[in-house]
Design brief:
The protein has 397 residues and is an alpha/beta fold. Helices cover 44% and strands 16% of the residues. It has a 7-stranded parallel beta sheet with strand order 3-2-1-6-7-8-9, sandwiched between helices.
Length: 397
Protein backbone atom coordinates (compact mmCIF):
# COMPACT_ATOMS: atom_id res chain seq x y z
CA UNK A 1 0.00 0.00 0.00
CA UNK A 2 1.25 3.47 -0.92
CA UNK A 3 1.54 5.32 2.43
CA UNK A 4 0.58 8.61 0.81
CA UNK A 5 -2.74 7.17 -0.41
CA UNK A 6 -3.93 5.80 2.94
CA UNK A 7 -7.40 6.84 4.04
CA UNK A 8 -7.60 7.56 7.77
CA UNK A 9 -9.96 9.00 10.36
CA UNK A 10 -8.70 10.94 13.38
CA UNK A 11 -10.83 10.82 16.56
CA UNK A 12 -10.55 13.45 19.30
CA UNK A 13 -12.81 14.47 22.21
CA UNK A 14 -12.19 18.22 21.94
CA UNK A 15 -11.42 20.26 18.86
CA UNK A 16 -11.58 23.80 17.55
CA UNK A 17 -12.46 26.40 18.79
CA UNK A 18 -10.54 24.95 21.76
CA UNK A 19 -6.84 24.85 20.91
CA UNK A 20 -4.15 22.79 22.61
CA UNK A 21 -1.24 20.59 21.57
CA UNK A 22 -3.39 17.54 20.79
CA UNK A 23 -5.78 19.62 18.68
CA UNK A 24 -2.81 21.00 16.73
CA UNK A 25 -1.48 17.47 16.24
CA UNK A 26 -4.78 16.18 14.84
CA UNK A 27 -5.25 19.23 12.63
CA UNK A 28 -1.81 18.86 11.07
CA UNK A 29 -2.22 15.11 10.60
CA UNK A 30 -5.50 15.61 8.75
CA UNK A 31 -4.42 18.64 6.74
CA UNK A 32 -1.16 17.17 5.44
CA UNK A 33 -2.47 13.61 4.88
CA UNK A 34 -5.40 15.02 2.95
CA UNK A 35 -3.01 16.55 0.42
CA UNK A 36 -2.03 13.16 -1.01
CA UNK A 37 -4.60 10.72 0.37
CA UNK A 38 -7.57 11.23 2.64
CA UNK A 39 -8.01 12.02 6.31
CA UNK A 40 -10.99 13.31 8.26
CA UNK A 41 -11.57 14.33 11.86
CA UNK A 42 -14.37 12.94 14.03
CA UNK A 43 -15.08 15.08 17.07
CA UNK A 44 -18.09 16.23 19.13
CA UNK A 45 -20.21 19.27 18.44
CA UNK A 46 -18.78 22.09 20.58
CA UNK A 47 -20.52 24.07 23.30
CA UNK A 48 -20.99 27.01 20.93
CA UNK A 49 -21.54 27.16 17.18
CA UNK A 50 -18.33 26.81 15.16
CA UNK A 51 -17.71 26.81 11.41
CA UNK A 52 -15.37 24.08 10.13
CA UNK A 53 -15.72 25.05 6.47
CA UNK A 54 -12.27 26.67 6.33
CA UNK A 55 -10.60 23.28 6.83
CA UNK A 56 -9.13 21.47 3.82
CA UNK A 57 -10.39 18.15 5.23
CA UNK A 58 -13.76 16.83 6.36
CA UNK A 59 -14.75 17.38 9.99
CA UNK A 60 -17.66 15.31 11.25
CA UNK A 61 -19.21 16.64 14.45
CA UNK A 62 -20.84 13.84 16.40
CA UNK A 63 -23.71 14.20 18.83
CA UNK A 64 -22.68 15.70 22.16
CA UNK A 65 -24.14 16.69 25.49
CA UNK A 66 -23.59 20.25 26.63
CA UNK A 67 -22.38 20.47 30.21
CA UNK A 68 -23.37 23.58 32.18
CA UNK A 69 -20.21 23.68 34.32
CA UNK A 70 -17.55 22.83 31.71
CA UNK A 71 -16.09 24.40 28.58
CA UNK A 72 -16.16 20.99 26.88
CA UNK A 73 -19.14 19.14 25.44
CA UNK A 74 -19.48 15.44 26.32
CA UNK A 75 -19.17 13.31 23.14
CA UNK A 76 -22.00 10.89 22.38
CA UNK A 77 -20.83 9.11 19.19
CA UNK A 78 -22.34 5.72 20.04
CA UNK A 79 -25.81 7.27 19.87
CA UNK A 80 -25.17 8.98 16.53
CA UNK A 81 -26.14 6.86 13.53
CA UNK A 82 -25.03 9.61 11.15
CA UNK A 83 -21.36 9.21 12.11
CA UNK A 84 -21.59 5.46 11.51
CA UNK A 85 -23.03 6.10 8.05
CA UNK A 86 -20.31 8.70 7.40
CA UNK A 87 -17.50 6.29 8.33
CA UNK A 88 -18.95 3.35 6.41
CA UNK A 89 -19.01 5.43 3.22
CA UNK A 90 -15.45 6.75 3.32
CA UNK A 91 -13.64 3.49 2.48
CA UNK A 92 -11.22 4.01 5.36
CA UNK A 93 -8.04 2.00 5.97
CA UNK A 94 -7.30 2.92 9.60
CA UNK A 95 -8.74 4.70 12.64
CA UNK A 96 -6.51 6.82 14.88
CA UNK A 97 -7.78 7.76 18.35
CA UNK A 98 -6.22 10.69 20.19
CA UNK A 99 -8.27 10.31 23.36
CA UNK A 100 -9.02 7.27 25.55
CA UNK A 101 -12.54 8.48 26.30
CA UNK A 102 -15.80 8.59 24.33
CA UNK A 103 -14.57 9.28 20.79
CA UNK A 104 -11.59 6.98 21.32
CA UNK A 105 -13.55 4.04 22.68
CA UNK A 106 -16.05 4.45 19.85
CA UNK A 107 -13.18 4.42 17.32
CA UNK A 108 -11.71 1.23 18.81
CA UNK A 109 -14.99 -0.67 18.75
CA UNK A 110 -16.17 0.57 15.36
CA UNK A 111 -12.82 -0.21 13.71
CA UNK A 112 -13.37 -3.83 14.76
CA UNK A 113 -16.82 -3.79 13.18
CA UNK A 114 -15.40 -2.43 9.91
CA UNK A 115 -12.45 -4.87 9.99
CA UNK A 116 -9.72 -2.22 9.96
CA UNK A 117 -6.88 -1.54 12.43
CA UNK A 118 -7.02 1.04 15.20
CA UNK A 119 -4.10 2.98 16.64
CA UNK A 120 -4.28 5.22 19.70
CA UNK A 121 -1.81 7.85 20.85
CA UNK A 122 -1.25 8.46 24.56
CA UNK A 123 -0.87 12.24 24.82
CA UNK A 124 -1.52 13.36 28.37
CA UNK A 125 -0.94 12.64 32.06
CA UNK A 126 -4.58 11.83 32.75
CA UNK A 127 -3.93 10.80 36.37
CA UNK A 128 -2.61 14.29 37.08
CA UNK A 129 -5.56 15.84 35.24
CA UNK A 130 -8.10 13.96 37.35
CA UNK A 131 -6.25 14.79 40.58
CA UNK A 132 -6.24 18.46 39.61
CA UNK A 133 -9.98 18.47 38.84
CA UNK A 134 -11.30 16.23 41.63
CA UNK A 135 -8.57 16.20 44.27
CA UNK A 136 -9.24 12.46 44.67
CA UNK A 137 -6.53 9.83 44.21
CA UNK A 138 -9.18 7.11 44.33
CA UNK A 139 -11.07 8.61 41.39
CA UNK A 140 -7.81 9.18 39.50
CA UNK A 141 -6.86 5.53 39.98
CA UNK A 142 -10.26 4.34 38.69
CA UNK A 143 -9.94 6.59 35.63
CA UNK A 144 -6.42 5.37 34.83
CA UNK A 145 -7.60 1.75 35.12
CA UNK A 146 -10.26 2.54 32.52
CA UNK A 147 -7.63 4.23 30.36
CA UNK A 148 -5.39 1.15 30.48
CA UNK A 149 -8.33 -1.03 29.39
CA UNK A 150 -8.84 1.30 26.43
CA UNK A 151 -5.23 1.05 25.26
CA UNK A 152 -5.42 -2.72 25.58
CA UNK A 153 -8.47 -2.66 23.28
CA UNK A 154 -6.76 -1.03 20.29
CA UNK A 155 -4.44 -2.78 17.86
CA UNK A 156 -1.43 -0.46 18.16
CA UNK A 157 -0.36 2.11 20.77
CA UNK A 158 1.76 5.21 20.25
CA UNK A 159 3.15 7.84 22.62
CA UNK A 160 4.51 11.29 21.77
CA UNK A 161 7.77 10.72 23.68
CA UNK A 162 9.65 7.97 25.53
CA UNK A 163 8.76 9.62 28.84
CA UNK A 164 5.10 9.63 27.88
CA UNK A 165 5.33 5.92 27.12
CA UNK A 166 6.80 5.40 30.59
CA UNK A 167 3.84 7.29 32.07
CA UNK A 168 1.41 4.90 30.37
CA UNK A 169 3.43 1.93 31.64
CA UNK A 170 3.28 3.41 35.16
CA UNK A 171 -0.51 3.22 34.87
CA UNK A 172 -0.21 -0.53 34.35
CA UNK A 173 -0.13 -0.92 30.56
CA UNK A 174 2.19 -3.77 29.55
CA UNK A 175 1.85 -3.82 25.75
CA UNK A 176 4.13 -2.48 23.03
CA UNK A 177 4.34 1.30 22.64
CA UNK A 178 5.86 3.07 19.64
CA UNK A 179 7.08 6.67 19.91
CA UNK A 180 5.92 9.21 17.32
CA UNK A 181 7.27 12.74 17.76
CA UNK A 182 5.26 15.93 17.52
CA UNK A 183 6.18 18.75 15.16
CA UNK A 184 5.57 22.41 14.43
CA UNK A 185 4.02 24.36 11.58
CA UNK A 186 6.36 27.28 12.14
CA UNK A 187 9.24 27.97 9.80
CA UNK A 188 11.47 31.05 9.87
CA UNK A 189 9.58 33.80 7.98
CA UNK A 190 11.04 35.59 4.99
CA UNK A 191 11.27 38.85 6.99
CA UNK A 192 11.64 37.94 10.68
CA UNK A 193 12.71 41.48 11.62
CA UNK A 194 9.43 42.95 10.41
CA UNK A 195 7.41 40.35 12.32
CA UNK A 196 9.52 40.90 15.44
CA UNK A 197 9.14 44.69 15.32
CA UNK A 198 5.37 44.35 14.94
CA UNK A 199 5.18 42.21 18.10
CA UNK A 200 7.51 44.54 20.00
CA UNK A 201 5.27 47.48 19.18
CA UNK A 202 2.04 45.62 20.00
CA UNK A 203 3.21 44.26 23.36
CA UNK A 204 5.65 47.07 24.31
CA UNK A 205 8.64 44.72 24.40
CA UNK A 206 11.92 46.53 25.14
CA UNK A 207 14.85 45.68 22.86
CA UNK A 208 17.50 46.23 25.54
CA UNK A 209 16.21 43.67 28.08
CA UNK A 210 16.36 39.89 28.43
CA UNK A 211 12.92 38.68 27.30
CA UNK A 212 11.54 35.47 28.78
CA UNK A 213 8.37 33.86 27.47
CA UNK A 214 5.88 31.27 28.69
CA UNK A 215 3.23 29.92 26.30
CA UNK A 216 0.54 27.55 27.53
CA UNK A 217 -2.59 27.06 29.59
CA UNK A 218 -2.69 29.18 32.74
CA UNK A 219 -3.00 26.26 35.15
CA UNK A 220 -0.96 25.72 38.29
CA UNK A 221 0.27 22.24 37.40
CA UNK A 222 2.27 23.68 34.48
CA UNK A 223 4.55 25.10 37.21
CA UNK A 224 3.39 28.71 36.90
CA UNK A 225 4.21 29.30 40.57
CA UNK A 226 7.80 28.21 39.94
CA UNK A 227 8.01 30.61 37.00
CA UNK A 228 6.76 33.53 39.07
CA UNK A 229 8.89 32.65 42.12
CA UNK A 230 11.99 32.39 39.93
CA UNK A 231 11.23 35.68 38.22
CA UNK A 232 10.81 37.34 41.61
CA UNK A 233 14.44 36.44 42.37
CA UNK A 234 15.48 37.81 38.98
CA UNK A 235 13.43 40.98 39.42
CA UNK A 236 14.94 41.66 42.83
CA UNK A 237 18.42 40.93 41.46
CA UNK A 238 18.37 43.05 38.31
CA UNK A 239 16.31 45.40 36.15
CA UNK A 240 17.38 43.54 33.00
CA UNK A 241 14.61 40.92 32.75
CA UNK A 242 11.04 40.92 31.44
CA UNK A 243 8.51 38.09 31.52
CA UNK A 244 5.61 37.62 29.07
CA UNK A 245 3.00 34.93 29.71
CA UNK A 246 0.72 33.83 26.86
CA UNK A 247 -2.43 31.81 27.40
CA UNK A 248 -5.58 31.41 29.43
CA UNK A 249 -6.95 28.72 31.70
CA UNK A 250 -9.07 27.91 34.71
CA UNK A 251 -6.35 29.05 37.15
CA UNK A 252 -5.65 32.32 35.29
CA UNK A 253 -7.32 34.58 37.86
CA UNK A 254 -5.54 32.94 40.80
CA UNK A 255 -2.20 33.06 38.98
CA UNK A 256 -2.56 36.77 38.25
CA UNK A 257 -3.54 37.42 41.85
CA UNK A 258 -0.43 35.57 43.03
CA UNK A 259 1.70 37.63 40.64
CA UNK A 260 0.17 40.85 41.99
CA UNK A 261 1.10 39.78 45.52
CA UNK A 262 4.78 39.53 44.52
CA UNK A 263 4.98 43.27 43.85
CA UNK A 264 6.98 42.94 40.66
CA UNK A 265 8.39 46.14 39.22
CA UNK A 266 5.95 47.91 36.94
CA UNK A 267 5.79 46.36 33.47
CA UNK A 268 8.20 43.54 34.27
CA UNK A 269 5.58 40.73 34.27
CA UNK A 270 3.04 40.82 31.44
CA UNK A 271 -0.01 38.57 31.04
CA UNK A 272 -1.09 38.87 27.40
CA UNK A 273 -3.90 36.29 27.40
CA UNK A 274 -4.71 33.80 24.67
CA UNK A 275 -3.33 34.56 21.22
CA UNK A 276 -5.29 32.84 18.45
CA UNK A 277 -3.46 34.54 15.57
CA UNK A 278 -0.51 32.28 14.79
CA UNK A 279 1.49 35.09 13.14
CA UNK A 280 1.14 37.29 16.22
CA UNK A 281 2.39 34.43 18.39
CA UNK A 282 5.24 33.84 15.94
CA UNK A 283 6.24 37.48 16.35
CA UNK A 284 6.29 37.05 20.12
CA UNK A 285 8.58 34.04 19.81
CA UNK A 286 10.90 36.08 17.59
CA UNK A 287 10.96 38.84 20.21
CA UNK A 288 11.96 36.45 23.02
CA UNK A 289 15.38 35.28 24.13
CA UNK A 290 14.28 32.24 26.14
CA UNK A 291 11.17 30.09 26.52
CA UNK A 292 10.77 29.41 30.24
CA UNK A 293 8.79 26.17 30.41
CA UNK A 294 9.57 24.22 33.60
CA UNK A 295 6.38 22.10 33.46
CA UNK A 296 6.77 18.49 34.57
CA UNK A 297 3.16 17.81 33.55
CA UNK A 298 3.57 18.23 29.77
CA UNK A 299 4.75 15.30 27.70
CA UNK A 300 5.96 16.60 24.34
CA UNK A 301 4.97 20.27 24.34
CA UNK A 302 4.59 21.78 20.89
CA UNK A 303 5.62 25.19 22.23
CA UNK A 304 9.19 23.96 22.72
CA UNK A 305 9.40 23.05 19.02
CA UNK A 306 7.62 26.25 17.98
CA UNK A 307 10.08 28.37 19.92
CA UNK A 308 13.05 26.39 18.56
CA UNK A 309 11.88 26.97 14.99
CA UNK A 310 12.22 30.71 15.68
CA UNK A 311 15.69 30.23 17.17
CA UNK A 312 14.48 30.47 20.78
CA UNK A 313 15.82 27.75 23.12
CA UNK A 314 13.88 26.52 26.15
CA UNK A 315 14.70 26.27 29.83
CA UNK A 316 13.10 23.04 31.08
CA UNK A 317 13.04 20.99 34.25
CA UNK A 318 15.76 18.37 34.29
CA UNK A 319 14.35 14.85 33.93
CA UNK A 320 10.93 16.03 32.72
CA UNK A 321 9.28 14.53 29.63
CA UNK A 322 9.51 17.95 27.98
CA UNK A 323 13.29 17.97 28.46
CA UNK A 324 13.63 14.82 26.36
CA UNK A 325 13.66 16.99 23.24
CA UNK A 326 16.82 18.91 24.14
CA UNK A 327 20.50 18.39 24.91
CA UNK A 328 21.77 20.69 27.65
CA UNK A 329 23.89 23.58 26.38
CA UNK A 330 23.56 22.24 22.84
CA UNK A 331 19.89 22.57 21.92
CA UNK A 332 18.32 23.74 25.19
CA UNK A 333 18.76 24.26 28.91
CA UNK A 334 17.66 22.34 32.01
CA UNK A 335 17.71 22.95 35.75
CA UNK A 336 16.37 21.32 38.91
CA UNK A 337 12.74 21.99 39.79
CA UNK A 338 13.23 24.78 42.32
CA UNK A 339 13.42 28.56 42.09
CA UNK A 340 17.06 28.91 43.19
CA UNK A 341 18.33 26.40 40.61
CA UNK A 342 16.26 28.03 37.86
CA UNK A 343 17.41 31.51 38.93
CA UNK A 344 21.07 30.48 38.82
CA UNK A 345 20.63 28.77 35.45
CA UNK A 346 19.06 31.90 33.94
CA UNK A 347 21.93 34.05 35.23
CA UNK A 348 24.38 31.56 33.68
CA UNK A 349 22.51 31.50 30.35
CA UNK A 350 22.57 35.28 29.96
CA UNK A 351 25.95 35.74 31.64
CA UNK A 352 28.00 33.28 29.57
CA UNK A 353 29.38 34.79 26.39
CA UNK A 354 27.94 33.33 23.15
CA UNK A 355 26.13 30.51 25.02
CA UNK A 356 22.62 31.67 24.17
CA UNK A 357 23.52 32.26 20.52
CA UNK A 358 25.12 28.81 20.22
CA UNK A 359 22.18 27.00 21.84
CA UNK A 360 19.68 29.00 19.77
CA UNK A 361 21.31 27.59 16.64
CA UNK A 362 21.26 24.11 18.14
CA UNK A 363 17.56 24.40 18.98
CA UNK A 364 16.71 25.30 15.38
CA UNK A 365 18.86 22.45 14.10
CA UNK A 366 17.81 19.66 16.47
CA UNK A 367 14.46 20.50 18.05
CA UNK A 368 12.48 22.32 15.37
CA UNK A 369 10.99 19.33 13.54
CA UNK A 370 8.14 20.38 11.27
CA UNK A 371 4.88 18.54 10.69
CA UNK A 372 5.95 18.26 7.04
CA UNK A 373 8.76 16.01 8.29
CA UNK A 374 6.66 14.13 10.87
CA UNK A 375 3.48 13.32 8.92
CA UNK A 376 5.19 11.24 6.18
CA UNK A 377 6.64 9.14 9.03
CA UNK A 378 3.12 8.72 10.39
CA UNK A 379 1.91 7.57 6.98
CA UNK A 380 4.77 5.08 6.70
CA UNK A 381 3.85 3.73 10.13
CA UNK A 382 0.21 3.48 9.12
CA UNK A 383 1.22 1.38 6.11
CA UNK A 384 3.19 -0.99 8.35
CA UNK A 385 0.28 -1.26 10.79
CA UNK A 386 -2.21 -2.04 8.00
CA UNK A 387 0.12 -4.68 6.56
CA UNK A 388 0.63 -6.33 9.97
CA UNK A 389 -3.07 -6.21 10.74
CA UNK A 390 -4.05 -7.75 7.40
CA UNK A 391 -1.35 -10.45 7.68
CA UNK A 392 -2.52 -11.39 11.19
CA UNK A 393 -6.15 -11.64 10.13
CA UNK A 394 -5.32 -13.65 6.99
CA UNK A 395 -3.52 -16.17 9.22
CA UNK A 396 -6.53 -16.34 11.56
CA UNK A 397 -8.78 -17.12 8.59
Amino acid sequence: MDPKKIRSAQFIDTYFPIVDGVVQTVHNYAELMNQTGYSCVVTPRPMTEFDDSDKSYEVFRTASLKLPIAEYAAPMPRFDNKVKHFLENRNLDIFHAHSPFMEGTFAASYAKKLGIPSVATFHSKYYDDVINITGSKAIAKLVTMKIVRFYKSVDFVWACSAGTADTLRSYGFRGDIAVMDNGTTYEMPADPDAMRKKAEAAFKIPRDKHIMLFVGHQIWHKNLKLILDTFKLLDDHSDDYRLFLVGNGYDAEAIRKYADEQNFKDGHVNFVGRISDREVLQGLYLSADLLFFPSVYDNSPLVVREAASMGVPSLLTVGSNAAEAVRKDISGFTAEENKVAMFREILRIFGTEDLLEKVSEGARREVAKTWKEIVPQVQERYAEIIEKYNFKHRKEL
